Amino acid sequence: MLQALAPGLLEAREPVQRDRYALPPLPDAEKGVVMRFAPNPSGPLHLGHARAAVLNDVYVRRYGGRYILRIEDTDPKRVDPGAYETVPEDIRWLGCGITETVYQSDRLEVYYDHARRLIERGGGYVCTCDNDRFRELRLARTACPCRGGEVEENLARFEGMLAGAYAEGEASLRVRTDLDAPDPALRDFPAFRILTSTLHPRIDASVYPLMNFSVAVDDHLLGCTHVIRGKDHIANTRRQQFIYDWYSWTPPHFRHYGRMGIEGVVLSTSEMRAGIAAGRYEGWDDIRLGTLRALARRGIEPEAVKRAMLAIGIGETDIQFSWENLFAENRAIVDPVADRLWFVPDPVAVEVTGAPPREAHPLRHPGDPSRGTRTLAYDGSVVVPAAELAGEISLLRLKDLFNVEVSTVEGRARLAYAGDELADARGARVPIVQWLPLDGTVPCTLRRPEGEIAGVSEPSVCDAVGKVVQFERVGFARIDTAGPGGAVAYLTHR
RNA sequence: GCUGCUAUAGUGUAGUCCGGCCAAUCAUGUCGGCCUUUCACGCCGACGACUGGGGUUCGAAUCCCCAUAGCAGCACCA
Fold first, then answer.
1. pTM of the model
2. Which of A18, A306, A334, A440 has the fewest CB atoms in 10 Å of its CB?
3. Residue A417 exposed, middle or buried by CB count within 10 Å (0-12, 13-18, 19+)
4. CA→C1' distance for A15 and B24 (Å)
């Protein structure tokens, strides 16, 4: 219509209707990309990891190419053996298109070999200085005594490190950078250390590469074209640049997104582990945690996480992640598919007078009647939420049943049949409440981060185990377990 | 302290590179209304922001400077 009347107007009014989930283009990506997600296997993945995993995944899908999952397990102190299982599981749940998985602990010889080459090029030296001493020298922009050594000597000392000639902490291999670098963090940073006090769960080793070395070597060897990571790595990117320079390698394109704070949950893996050990949390999927498995348990769809991350994008601004935004994404996904079910919180049993038994047939989904109805047999007594009887209410409608008058006799509420007409309830602007037959309920606990709500649900809750349903007038919930003895559901969000 | 990054409504985000089309986009949120046998979904409307101060310019959210704030790094962690 408008198109016909004023075609020009329509066009003018359409200013780049940008896709909320679109990401900016990557440079030099037209011929495909190689990207990686490189977590430390210290525990299950959380929302912070999801951002990196999703951003990289989406770019690989967009441009085509390889997506490497690189397990960065070069610090045995920060390896949780269980994470070798849980990390890939979480990645699978998120739906990332990983094409290959690499374990850094399998590649120690590669790193040793490159260490030798670095030394040969004059880019590395074995340092046996005391830590505090070195720190002072670095701040003073002064070379430490080890820095001037010959290549042959450094090579020999490095082999000594590998052969066990030095104890933990006695020697390290440093990258020769620029002592005048304005940022002290860049001056002759370490590339390898000796660690014997903690055993590695997968390998027998005592000389480990540090992150900046192994990451630079792997990114190059694995052919990474683009690296997207958090802003906290900016200093590392600069450090790694020195390594690329020593080998005359072309570095990948780097992109750093801002810090993401998450309201209300613990994100630190060590803190979560401590809480679980202390019994404060039930496990890694405790719904008060920010792990992906906790989200899954609550009924958050991976696609919702993905969309929320894409909406945030790769901006360099530090942001505060808001659950509201994630919930909105999830609601949009779940609302069209979730079956409706009645959950009566804090149920009160009440007798209803004046109406013979009959059946109610609420729709499974109001937007799709073809999905059918459930059957609830009213036979004279019902349970309703206590909150509905609390006020000065004189009239209610039992949903899909009939209207009732509310009265109080000797301190107890009683309901009396007040007609079938929906219009009466509408006209009186009276609440339409969920109810259940007194003898046809299953005990149901609705668990939320803020606490549990005891209630009852209709028996068909047992058919929905593992699914997200909508408890009408309460919110969406994932049915965790259910049987004749009772059900446990987790509130997803309202 | 040193080094660096960032700064648009409650939250997220577009616009910033290449000043004017920005009396600033979209989403979410909150409030109000409509629809509806759910307080869901949908629809309509309202609310709400360019950190501050200088400068350049006919014109600045956009460029420059200063200030302020937040964050990060300065680990033999990733």
1. 0.93
2. A18
3. middle
4. 13
